[in-house]
Design goal:
The protein is of the alpha+beta class. It has nine helices and four strands, in the order ααααββααααββα. Helices cover 45% and strands 13% of the residues. It has a four-stranded mixed β-sheet with strand order 1-2-3-4.
Amino acid sequence: MQRDGMAESLPKVERSAILKVAEKLAERLKGKLRPRPKLRLRPEILLCPNVPAPMHGVAPRVIMGLKWWDETRRAAYRSTSFHCLACGVWKGAAKGHRWLEGHELYEVDYARGTMTYVETVALCHYCHCYIHDGRMTAELQRGRIPPQKFRAVLRHGDAVLAAAGLRRPSWRERDDAVREMICNGLIAKWKSWRLVLNGKKYPPKFKTKEAWEKAYAR
């Protein structure tokens, strides 16, 4: 039986009814199939600094709990129609893992020693790892991630920034900048640091740098 002539072979009354149903269905789907507004990417997110050492282990997800975190990160995923906000990839086509990850953005004031929570954004696995290159480097040194992945993540992030006309300073440049700030007294003392969340301030998890080094040396 040929499908092309099927509708024509039906009686006129039945054919008319089918066409009306098809028209109503098309009208219902029109709004759902309408193209979504183009997502405004924010590749500059990849330039956000590493979390200052005194604030390691202190995060909104830790303070607010798992229920809050799940609701917050899932809302971030929906806000981008499940695309990475930095590179724009859809979660099902992402490198490394076929999912999105929530990343907390902060405003960091090094002189005052404050890390203020701003928002949670949706990122693919590679963009998220690129931001946390300090942690990724430590994992590489411990043999927990292969060198191939380490290099692939860096290439990915560098390419996303280059396409936007941006460049992240090298490790040496960032390290020199921190050393200069320390020498000029522009970074707050360890015990002075605070995470600012919903107007409240939370102290470091580790009371001293020595305690932090001991914990992260494992």
